[in-house]
């Protein structure tokens, strides 16, 4: 087994375990209990590892004071030194309400491979990896980016589908999109999958401000895709692309707690995951 295979199986083990633990609380209206179950379960999986020494660089949960794996926490008793970015339960609200979109997510890289970031907000734009790099800028107005994207795609702004988190802070962006007749996909939660879907070309653009942990995890997925890495972000005043966030070959595993992006939610010890590695992107079913 090479390192990437080890990272892949460990990441999958973590997310299937986290998803199963969170699922116990799906629909019970207690976000923190669901989050804590996923956190505890992933922590115990990583603590058991005798072939990894895991350094947590992203442990989502600081911003909303949710249970979390701590940035700087070291788990596992030895072997390969790795960086881990983890969102034990992405879309906690969706899990607590038994709505679509809840996932358990873990990324693993060789030591020093992932950006270490606090759980703060990050501005993000993402578009298809089949389009040229750098045609849009996080510094442009939304209107400028839409006009540039429409010109490169040879279409009208009204033919573009743009995803935005439905938040008060995005009122201005949504107003600009409406004035251009763009089709706006307004989501209540889950910009991690939104950014990945834009990079895969399933939607034309993801734009807006969300969590930095979700941004780093999305960058890992995009670092594994063929083509251009069209994800740009602004974190604490610094503009970055995927290469500044992911510096070494990395893997990402996402397991559905509730139905999400074509993955069936956890059910009778069966779970569905999507795994991104430098050589492939695949969907897998496992028994847990
Ligand atoms: O809800 P906020 O504060 O606008 O933060 C946006 C972030 O929340 C999410 O929608 C869900 O994250 P949580 O599971 O931590 O609630 C993320 O996808 C997104 O990056």
From TrEMBL:
Reactions mediated catalytically: beta-D-fructose 1,6-bisphosphate + H2O = beta-D-fructose 6-phosphate + phosphate
Keyword field: Carbohydrate metabolism, Hydrolase, Manganese, Metal-binding
Keyword NADP: no
UniProt signal peptide: none
Protein name: fructose-bisphosphatase
Enzyme Commission code: 3.1.3.11
Gene3D superfamilies: 3.40.190.90
Stated family: Belongs to the FBPase class 2 family.
Keyword Ribonucleoprotein (UniProt): no
PANTHER family from the UniProt entry: FRUCTOSE-1,6-BISPHOSPHATASE 1 CLASS 2-RELATED (PTHR30447:SF0), FRUCTOSE-1,6-BISPHOSPHATASE CLASS 2 (PTHR30447)
Enzyme class: hydrolase
């Amino acid at each position: 087994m090479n390192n990437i295979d080890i990272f892949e199986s460990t990441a999958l083990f973590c997310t299937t375990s986290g998803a199963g633990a969170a699922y116990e609380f799906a629909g019970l209206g207690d976000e923190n209990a669901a989050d804590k179950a996923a956190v505890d379960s992933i922590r115990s999986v990583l603590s058991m590892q005798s072939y990894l020494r895991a350094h947590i660089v992203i442990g989502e949960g600081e911003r909303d004071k949710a249970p979390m794996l701590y940035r700087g926490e070291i788990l596992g008793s030895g072997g390969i030194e790795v960086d881990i970015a983890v969102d034990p339960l992405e879309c906690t609200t969706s899990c607590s309400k038994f709505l679509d979109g809840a996932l358990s997510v873990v990324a693993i890289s060789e030591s020093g491979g992932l950006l270490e970031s606090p759980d703060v907000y990050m501005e993000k734009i993402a578009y298809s990896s089949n389009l040229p790099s750098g045609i849009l800028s996080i510094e442009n107005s939304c209107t400028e980016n839409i006009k540039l994207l429409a010109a490169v795609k040879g279409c009208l702004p009204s033919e573009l589908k743009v995803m935005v988190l439905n938040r008060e802070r995005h009122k201005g962006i949504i107003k600009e999109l409406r004035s251009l007749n763009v089709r706006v996909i307004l989501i209540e939660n889950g910009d991690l999958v939104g950014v990945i879907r834009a990079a895969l070309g399933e939607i034309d653009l993801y734009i807006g401000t969300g969590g930095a942990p979700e941004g780093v995890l999305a960058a890992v997925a995009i670092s594994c895709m063929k083509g251009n890495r069209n994800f740009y972000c602004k974190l604490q005043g610094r503009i970055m692309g995927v290469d500044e966030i992911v510096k070494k070959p990395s893997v990402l595993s996402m397991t559905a707690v509730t139905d999400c992006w074509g993955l069936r939610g956890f059910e009778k010890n069966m779970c569905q995951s999507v795994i991104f590695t430098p050589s492939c992107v695949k969907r897998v079913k496992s028994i847990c």
